[in-house]
């Protein structure tokens, strides 16, 4: 194929003058920003056009079409089923399974087409209607191509059944005959209708013999004079041998029967049996596979592939798959007759008849506006083991390439991205990296959404993404002064530095206001408390408060002392801790033992002596009073405890 | 691809840079009017300017967002020889009520003695770091050791590049196998043969950045430079905007500890070179997966480049202005619905495919005609052409290519034929529904005379098969 280099598709950015200005741009996760600018020069300063606009350019348009959501959602289920069904079955049942999958995909396309059609009919807006009907025609083209691929590649029908399948295919997709039939049958005397013979011809062309015979019998009863002629034609049509789906007859048997029948038709034609009725004569010619006679009915067949199937039916009923290419090419040439050139759809179908799978996929990706079709079809063909058997070393890569493109498109949608995750999961080479890059860009607008994204990352052990999401959420909460939320997110992120920072904020809040916020969170830290020293202290300090509140003074006192002696408490906080010890020291009963009291005294002295800016203690009246009071309380406690301990020992 | 929205930026002078935040929910613009504006996307998809403030005393060249792990932080650089770091402050109920946010300057980096031409945050795994480069040929790397206190930035490294610097790019790879790396481009246009792209790598032993490589083949002024996301590869990909677009791969060779003092040596290959802009290229930038490169040049176009699975690079889309004046009052409108079908063929660019021959004949103006046609049918006034003057439907549009192709579409009649019977509501195919021709039909209607990556693959495939 010789293809000239042509310009790729163009998107117009309104307003920007390409001769005088350039465009600056920025990539986003789903969109591109574009804006007019002038590179290489400083601003004019005298006020360039103030109307300059920033344009948001989107990539995947079909993703945003509401009615296609069903297609994306339901095909996702089928896709997942197909991935799971991996090679459980072998041979025949595996093939049946794959054909079933293919049929499911097609029924989703059809369902979507019906919805779209309903929408087109019900809408009043002509532009919208146009849009819908465009979608309908695209979907029906997809279904047509998929159906042919199913027959030729997935099912790989053999000689005999192949023709039956192709007939079904034509009957399913060339449908304007049905309306014609209805019109003819609903008229008062069908045989007098001007379209009567057209309908009979169409039935014959599509191999619908019973229906054709039924119509002819009506004509016969109205025309007793030519009764005999009708009878002969009816007999011929009845006797026509057809391939059967079951294996009861062999191909040679069929060929023999067919030869016999063919000769019989030939005889009647030469006899001039039908000479008096040109319609019936032409039908007989069609039965004989006369190409000119069939071509005369071009208008009724409408497409070259209908012509192909009709031609095969009456001249080569036992056509083998690999012979198709020859008949298809000549049928197309005959049918188009040099009047019109083949269109992309024709080229795609031709490529299918030629068993050029890659050509089919390639052409489809050119003409279809989304990746849905090629991605799913390629995946199915890959599961049929067809891409490898063609000895193309990039076979599986092409599947992945197309799936990656499709899933990336899904990620640009605010809710469909969740489907994209599963597609990435089934791309062995780059799926994970793509998922990592895409998922961290999902806007974390609410906590629920963040949790949803987080769950997906956790299931796949994406530690870095998990950490990053938690960190972002922690930062966001902190900026909004929601300390509790910030703390729980940073614990989830296992971010020690950040947990320390937030613990400090908690403690600062406490020393300013005298109470804790987010109590239930701090009370239930559990082992996560060990994430950072400061967090441990926060948890323990809160525990002290609880013990104190529950009047378990000895335990509270022991904990308080440990916090200082084990250096869990930051030095800046010791004064607060010692002040907290005051009420314990002043209780009626003695709580601190002598040894503990000595420890407390040492802590106090460490604090006052070890503090470099001693000045502060001396100058600040309140601080000095505090220290004085502490010393007094410690001394009194020591006195009491010595007496008490002495007494106990003495008794 | 299609233009989904337009947003009147309302800067009083030329806009120099637009920047998306990490999640694509916010954007920043900067301009010669010395200000930066921040825009937020609402739930319904509209963009609102939530802050606009004077940032510098000269043209603001670039604006960039820090990773959201560090909060809402922006950096800007300017002709006034400084770079600045800005942080959004939450609170102040007054602002919130007005839907405005408040940005405060955290620091001004004043070390440069000339215009600061580029500013970039380092990849997040390196912490909160910022690199600037200036016209005097120095790259400076700053670090904020305490992420909660952005007013303290220390100058960690000063790299003298000897040539006037125009752009920098950090290597985004977070792999342990790769040391921090920064590429610097120079727009020095004095006639010399010095390499205009230099790559500096951090050396763990000396704790300094040292020149690891210079791309000797690039001797023309370089305007922009961009490392691609790594995707777990062992090698790096670097795009360079100079008189053309070039894509290099840098493959690290084994470290020779003895000779080069721990510096990595690279095997450098040029994998693509495009001169389609026919002139200077000013910007290059990768999408988030590093699969599409966009470049902007003096021809007024943004071109998208994409490699297929055989590593063949192809242009897969062009964005181009149409030169028609935009009315100042034009506000963001929803182009999506009205332009839908008209643009269907255009979005093929996404598919990495090319439109049919007919499309290439279309000039911007005719395409806009087509768009407007649909906009009017939709009963909506086109958002970007309030004056009926050049685009009035009353004028004869039959001479337009688009009109012609749309009406004689053979495909549409064919479509009707392979529709199942149930789609005919009254027994005959509903021609009215299919009367609305679309550009996609037009695409299908015309044989593919174009070359694209798939076809290339196919040709190769054929050879293999033979």
- Structure class of chain B: alpha+beta
CATH topology of the largest domain in chain B: Methylamine Dehydrogenase, Chain H
Biggest pleated-sheet summary of chain A: 3 strands, antiparallel
- Please report the distance between the alpha carbons of the first and last residues of chain A: 112 Å
Q: Helix coverage percent of residues of chain A?
A: 55-70%
Order of strands across the main sheet of chain A: 2-3-4
Shape of chain A: elongated
The top-level CATH class of the largest domain in chain B is Mainly Beta
Give the uncertain stretches of chain B in residue-range form: 326-466
Helix content of chain B: 10-25%
Tally of discrete structural domains of chain B: 2
> In what order do the strands lie side by side in the largest sheet of chain B?
2-3-4-5
Q: How large is the count of helical segments of chain A?
A: 32
The gyration radius over C-alpha positions of chain B equals: 26 Å
Mean of all residue-level pLDDT scores of chain B: 72
Which percent range describes the beta-strand content of chain A? under 5%
* Largest interface between protein chains, with number of residues from each side: A-B, 145 and 160 residues
* Structure class of chain A: mainly alpha
Largest sheet of chain B: 4 strands, antiparallel
């Amino acid at each position: 194929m010789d293809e000239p280099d042509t310009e790729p598709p163009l998107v117009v950015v309104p307003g920007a003058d390409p001769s005088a200005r350039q465009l600056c741009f920025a990539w986003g996760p789903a969109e591109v920003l574009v804006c007019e600018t002038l590179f290489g020069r400083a601003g004019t300063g005298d006020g360039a056009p103030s109307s300059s606009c920033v344009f948001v350019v989107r990539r995947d348009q079909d993703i945003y079409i509401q009615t296609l959501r069903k297609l994306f959602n339901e095909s996702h289920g089928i896709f997942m089923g197909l991935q799971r069904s991996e090679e459980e079955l072998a041979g025949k049942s595996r093939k049946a399974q794959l054909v079933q999958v293919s049929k499911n995909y097609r029924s989703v396309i059809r369902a979507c087409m019906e919805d779209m059609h309903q929408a087109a009919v019900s809408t009043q807006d002509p532009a919208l209607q146009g849009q819908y009907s465009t979608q309908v025609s695209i979907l029906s083209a997809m279904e047509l191509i998929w159906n042919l691929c199913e027959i030729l590649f997935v099912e790989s029908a053999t000689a005999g059944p192949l023709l039956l399948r192709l007939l079904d295919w034509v009957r399913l997709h060339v449908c304007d005959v049905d309306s014609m039939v209805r019109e003819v049958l609903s008229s008062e005397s069908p045989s007098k209708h001007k379209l009567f013979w057209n309908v009979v011809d169409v039935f014959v062309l599509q191999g619908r013999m019973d229906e054709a015979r039924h119509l002819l019998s009506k004509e016969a009863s109205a025309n007793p004079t030519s009764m005999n002629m009708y009878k002969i034609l009816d007999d011929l049509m009845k006797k026509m041998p057809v391939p059967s789906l079951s294996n009861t007859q062999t191909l040679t048997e069929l060929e023999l029967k067919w030869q016999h029948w063919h000769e019989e038709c030939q005889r009647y034609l030469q006899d001039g049996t039908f000479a008096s009725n040109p319609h019936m004569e032409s039908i007989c010619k069609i039965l004989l596979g006369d190409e000119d006679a069939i071509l005369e009915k071009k208008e009724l067949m409408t497409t070259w592939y209908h012509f192909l199937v009709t031609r095969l039916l009456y001249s080569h009923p036992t056509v083998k798959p690999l012979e198709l290419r020859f008949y298809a090419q000549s049928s197309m040439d005959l049918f188009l007759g040099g009047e019109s050139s083949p269109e992309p759809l024709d080229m795609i179908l031709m490529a299918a008849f030629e068993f050029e799978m890659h050509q089919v996929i390639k052409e489809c990706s050119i003409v279809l506006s989304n990746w849905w079709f090629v991605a799913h079809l390629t995946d199915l063909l890959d599961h049929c083991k067809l891409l490898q058997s063609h000895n193309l070393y990039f076979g599986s890569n092409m599947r992945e390439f197309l799936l990656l493109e499709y899933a990336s498109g899904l990620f640009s949608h605010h809710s469909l991205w969740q489907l994209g995750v599963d597609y990435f999961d089934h791309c062995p080479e780059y799926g994970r990296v793509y998922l990592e890059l895409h998922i961290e860009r999902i806007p974390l607008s609410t906590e629920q959404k963040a949790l949803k994204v987080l769950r997906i990352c956790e299931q796949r052990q994406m530690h870095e993404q998990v950490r990053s999401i938690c960190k972002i959420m922690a930062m966001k909460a902190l900026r909004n002064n929601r300390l509790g939320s910030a703390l729980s997110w940073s614990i989830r992120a296992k971010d020690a530095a950040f947990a320390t920072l937030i613990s400090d904020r908690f403690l600062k809040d406490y020393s300013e206001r005298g109470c804790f916020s987010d109590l239930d969170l701090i009370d239930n830290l559990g082992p996560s408390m060990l994430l950072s020293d400061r967090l441990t202290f926060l948890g323990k300090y809160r525990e002290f408060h609880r013990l104190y509140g529950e009047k378990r003074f000895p335990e509270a006192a022991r904990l308080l002392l440990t916090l200082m002696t084990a250096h869990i408490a930051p030095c800046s906080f010791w004064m607060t801790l010692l002040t907290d010890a005051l009420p314990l020291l002043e209780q009626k009963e003695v709580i601190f033992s002598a040894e503990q009291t000595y420890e407390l005294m040492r802590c106090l002295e460490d604090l006052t002596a070890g503090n470099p800016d001693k000045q502060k203690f001396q100058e600040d009246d309140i601080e000095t009073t505090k220290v004085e009071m502490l010393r007094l309380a410690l001394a009194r406690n020591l006195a009491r405890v010595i007496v008490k301990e002495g007494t106990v020992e003495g008794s | 691809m299609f233009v989904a929205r337009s947003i009147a930026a309302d800067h009083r002078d030329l806009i120099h840079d637009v920047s998306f935040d990490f999640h694509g929910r916010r954007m920043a613009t900067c301009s010669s009017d010395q200000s930066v504006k921040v825009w937020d996307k609402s739930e319904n998809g509209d963009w609102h300017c939530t802050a606009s403030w004077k940032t510098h005393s000269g043209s603001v060249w670039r604006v960039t967002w820090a990773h959201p792990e560090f909060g809402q932080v922006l950096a800007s650089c300017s002709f006034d020889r400084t770079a600045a770091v800005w942080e959004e402050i939450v609170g102040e109920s007054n602002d919130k009520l007005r839907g405005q946010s408040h940005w405060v300057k955290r620091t001004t980096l004043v070390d440069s003695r000339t215009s600061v031409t580029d500013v970039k945050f380092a990849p997040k795994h390196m912490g909160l770091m910022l690199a600037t480069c200036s016209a005097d040929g120095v790259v400076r790397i700053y670090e904020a050791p305490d992420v909660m206190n952005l007013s303290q930035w220390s100058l960690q490294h000063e790299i003298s590049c000897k040539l006037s610097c125009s752009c920098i790019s950090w290597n985004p790879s977070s792999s342990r196998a790769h040391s921090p790396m920064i590429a610097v481009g120079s727009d020095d246009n004095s006639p010399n043969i010095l390499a205009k792209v230099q790559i500096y790598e951090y050396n763990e032993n000396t704790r300094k950045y040292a020149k690891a490589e210079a791309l000797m083949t690039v001797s023309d002024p370089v305007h922009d430079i961009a490392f691609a996301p790594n995707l777990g590869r062992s090698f790096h990909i670097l795009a360079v905007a100079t008189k053309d677009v070039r894509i290099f791969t840098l493959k690290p060779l084994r470290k020779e500890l003895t000779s080069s003092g721990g510096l990595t040596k690279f095997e450098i290959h040029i994998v693509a070179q495009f001169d389609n802009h026919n002139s200077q290229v000013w910007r290059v930038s990768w999408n988030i997966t590093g699969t599409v490169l966009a470049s902007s040049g003096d021809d007024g176009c943004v071109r998208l480049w994409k490699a297929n699975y055989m590593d063949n690079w192809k242009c897969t889309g062009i964005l181009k202005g149409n030169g028609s004046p935009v009315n100042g009052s034009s506000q963001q409108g929803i182009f999506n619905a009205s332009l839908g079908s008209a643009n269907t063929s255009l979005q093929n660019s996404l598919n990495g495919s090319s439109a049919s021959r007919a499309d290439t004949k279309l000039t911007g103006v005719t395409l806009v005609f087509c768009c407007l046609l649909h906009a009017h049918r939709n009963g909506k006034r086109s958002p970007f052409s309030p004056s009926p003057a050049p685009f009035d439907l009353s004028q004869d549009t039959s001479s337009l290519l688009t009109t012609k192709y749309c009406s004689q579409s053979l495909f549409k009649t064919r479509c009707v034929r392979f529709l199942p019977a149930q789609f005919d509501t009254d027994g005959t195919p509903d021609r009215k529904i299919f009367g609305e021709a679309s550009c996609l039909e037009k695409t299908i209607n015309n044989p593919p005379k174009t070359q694209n990556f798939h076809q290339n693959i196919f040709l190769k495939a054929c050879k293999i098969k033979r």
